Amino acid sequence: MPPRVRVAAAIAASLVLAGCGLASRSPSVPPVLGTVRVAATRAADDNQLFEARPRARLWTTNGPAPVEWGLSIGSATAIEVPVGSYTLSAFAVYMSDTLVCTDNTNGAPGQTCLQPTIGTGLTCDLPVVVAEATPVEATFQILANGHCRIDPVPGTEPPSPAASLTSPGSPAASG
Q: In this structure, are residues 66 and 82 in contact, taking their beta carbons and an 8 Å threshold?
């Protein structure tokens, strides 16, 4: 057999074998999803000198968060995640009250301005069980001095003893 024919036959055989392997694989089943909805509010005594950007994160029992998202003050933000047991964490990222601007060094005219991050407040956690039919709903409240509170919305509590968790040292935690 001439060399060109051997190369073509080898390529054709490998394509046929690869196709057989792909055909025998079962299609992956998409995960069953449930909804998590978190509303964010501010306490009346919250120091609003620095901008607080509320955020939420879901943690699994075996490691990193599958998802993190921003919240809006005064409204609820919903996401969909695979059903299962999680820890819902909420916190505020505090931004500086000034903008820092520098001249562009890449030849573009103008400046680039950024609002520096000061840091985060305390994190409040709530164990949740995400199910397909019943959304998980919680309210995250930014309290004074970087403290926080997270509560399940009545009627959507997870099947666990924790009904409300407050950051240590916050007014609600001390009595």
A: yes
Hey, what amino acid is at 102?
T
Residue ranges per structural domain of the chain: 33-166
CATH architecture of 33-166: Sandwich (2.60)
pTM over 0.70: no
Question: Distance (Å, rounded) from C-alpha 141 to C-alpha 76?
Answer: 12
Residue in 69, 72, 12 with CA at minimum distance from that of residue 36: 69
Q: What is the CA radius of gyration of the chain?
A: 25
What burial class does residue 106 get, using C-beta atoms within 10 Å of its C-beta: 0-12 exposed, 13-18 middle, 19+ buried?
A: exposed
Average of per-residue pLDDT across 84-108: 85
By DSSP bridging, strand 100-103 and strand 111-114 are antiparallel
pLDDT tens digits, residue range 8-40?
A: 454 555 544 445 554 555 678 888 999 999 999
DSSP for residue 75: S
For residue 14, count other CB atoms closer than 10 A to its CB: 10
Per-residue pLDDT reduced to its tens digit, 117-137: 776 788 999 999 999 989 999
At residue 127's C-alpha, the angle toward residues 80 and 162, to 5°, is 140
Residue with the bigger pLDDT between 110 and 173: it is: 110
